[in-house]
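Sequence in, structure out.
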Amino acid sequence: MAFPFYLTLRELFPRASLVLCGRNWISSLYPSGVFEEIVTLDRAKNLSQTKLNELKNQKIDLAFTLSPSFRSALLLYQIQSEYRIGYPGQFRKLLLRLPPKMGGRRIPAYNNTEHRALSYLRLLTPWFDNSMTGEDYLQLFRGPLKNKNLVSLSAETISIKPKSLVICPGSVAESKIWPIDYVLQIIQIALAKDSPFKNVVLVGSKIEAPFASYLIDTLEPALQKRVQNLTTKTDLSQLVDIIEKSSAVLANDSGISHLTSLTTTGLVSFQGMGRKEETLPLNARKIVHHAHLPCSPCMKKKCPRTDKPLECLTSILPAQVWESLKEISR
């Protein structure tokens, strides 16, 4: 979701020296030709004093935080940039210093009814070309056109077999996870004789690893041989490459669903607890299932309902999802 911001930043400041700062696993994925320097945080999400001093000495003119966290705003304050730009919240307003109105344009307030990628772009509003809006820049720089120019910490690629269905069975929040036994049914159908898929690839982080183990252990031995378990074995750039080579992706509301936006591969996903207007994947080829319940979006990591827990996901049946996968596959 940050890619349109990165590319617009370079477009607006063609002669500037740009520095990207973030956690190691996130900052390994960015469009080439945009940043002169990549700075990674340590495990405590901090910068060393040496690196802080280096950034201070660079006398940074503009510093942006896309994260809504207090810690990210504090980092901008610590490096003493002239302007510290982000959305207020989490008691961080005093740490930020927005630029004055330029060309009649100010940074608007955060709007959770529009896509987060567009909200990131709004932070650049004072510098927009007079003929352009945030929506214009989003359309200009969204999509897979940049996917061949990703930078990874690892140059190693991972092979997958043709006609593979990529599945990410987990997510960071319990209330975003489609029932694992439904996923099992999809795998069994996908590996049947009349399926457009020939193989299944399971991907994700250590969060997804137990789900992957359960799925493989539950399958009959003949089907296990056609399932490739790559959970915890890839970085983000490798995942983009795997997705690009696959026939379709099935993923929960997760980071991997957003990675599909950098490829030409179709996505089938789900939206329950989150606001689809704010975080729907930018992928142009997607089918997102939504139960449209009165309790959605609840924005809760754990479903608060006791009568029908996770109805927003359990009511979406494998037969519906399978039809979507057949429609979106290539």
